[in-house]
Amino acid sequence: MSDTDVTIPLRNDLTGRVAVVTGASSGLGVAHAVGLAQCGADVVVTGRRAERLAQTAQRVEATGRRCHIVVGSVTDLEDCARVVQETMETFGRLDILVNNAGDGGEYHDVVDDPPEHFSRTVELNLHGTYWMIREAARVMRAGGSIVNVSSVMALTTAKMPAAAYSASKAAVLGLTRDLAAQLGPKGIRVNAILPGVFPSEQTEHYSDRYKAKVIEARIPIGRIGAPQDAAAVVCFLAGDASAYVTGVSLPVDGGVLLT
Q: How far apart are CA 36 and CA 238, in angstroms?
């Protein structure tokens, strides 16, 4: 069967593939892991909180797919290598990498920003993404897909003192373009999503009144994103439905970047 004979629904089927999701202990990472499993993939979840990863694994396995847990940090090169090694030992392949691990950092005015805060945020959001791709690219075969999670803050500002976060997430876009060019000849695609406002540990303290103000001011579609909104786009970029898409930075923001 040629590529032109494959139906559109089959292009969204991830059965037989193996995905690694970093930062899968909370927020969008959980949604990405579950969404990929719902599309048929077996999933490796990794992050720093074992108990939360176990909860994610239960949700993945409830879909009927297999899940493997690796506790570690993407800022540790040995941990990154171990994630890939255990993926290959457990499943024998690695087809999809979702670089979700990240940190919004703290809010500091430029003149007061502690150097260690800026460095720590860049290390997690940018370096961690790069190290995971470096290890995954060693074993990933043609047809593989890498999805980096950036942010709308890479292209706009919420008028908050969040330079470390914005700069690191903007750097992920440059990383995505360069690695798409590098890995394209090997048949590996690299894309990024730019989430807008979603429920997360960083936004859970938002009051309903504040959320309403944000929606009115910045979100034309009229609501905060649901985790499944982002996960569905990740699944699209992970599979053959996007087989001719690489180097793209795709906003998933309800229109934030229009305002």
A: 8
* Whether 128 contacts 73, CB under 8 Å: yes
What DSSP string describes 173-186?
A: HHHHHHHHHHHGGG
Does the annotation count 206 as an active-site position?
no
Phi, psi (degrees; rounded to nearest 5) at 49: -115, 105
Catalytic residue among 26, 145, 150, 151, which?
151
Q: How many residues are there in the chain? A: 259
Catalytic residue (choose from 26, 73, 166, 169): 169
What lies within 8 Å, CB to CB, of 61 at 6+ separation is: 67
DSSP secondary structure, 64-109, as one string = T--EEEEE--TTSHHHHHHHHHHHHHHHS---EEEE----------
| pTM higher than 0.70 | yes
Catalytic residue among 25, 26, 150, 165: 165
Structurally, the chain folds into a number of domains equal to 1
For residues 191 and 246, the answer to whether their CB atoms sit within 8 Å is: yes
**In the block, which residue shows the tokens 């979603």?**
198
Tens digit of pLDDT for each residue in 179-199? 999 999 999 999 999 999 998
69-125 pLDDT, tens per residue?
999 999 999 999 999 999 999 999 999 999 999 988 787 888 888 889 999 999 999
Q: Print the domain residue range for 36.
A: 3-246
Whether 213 is a known active-site residue: answer no
CATH of the domain at 181: 3.40.50.720
